[in-house]
């Protein structure tokens, strides 16, 4: 898996994901657990949707 999630994208994913998970833990709707996905993709630096769409926000070009 090549890294395809850049720095700012990682931070935004992790912050939004943690906010959703926190909301779910505080009694929010069940769908808020979807926040686990952006946290995971932010920590791994790889997003399967970006791969399918041919997107890349990572500034480092690996050969």
Describe what this molecule looks like in 3D:
This protein is mostly helical and 63 residues long. The protein contains three helices and no strands. It has helices at 7-25, 36-44, 48-53. The chain is elongated and about 40 Å long.
Strand content: under 5%
User: Average pLDDT value?
Assistant: 92
Tell me the number of strands. Answer: 0
Oligomeric category: single chain
Largest sheet: none
Helix-strand category:
mainly alpha
Fold topology:
Layout: H1 7-25, H2 36-44, H3 48-53
Helix pairs in contact: 1-2
Concise description?
The protein has 63 residues and is mostly helical. The chain is built from three helices and no strands.
Keywords:
63 residues, mainly alpha
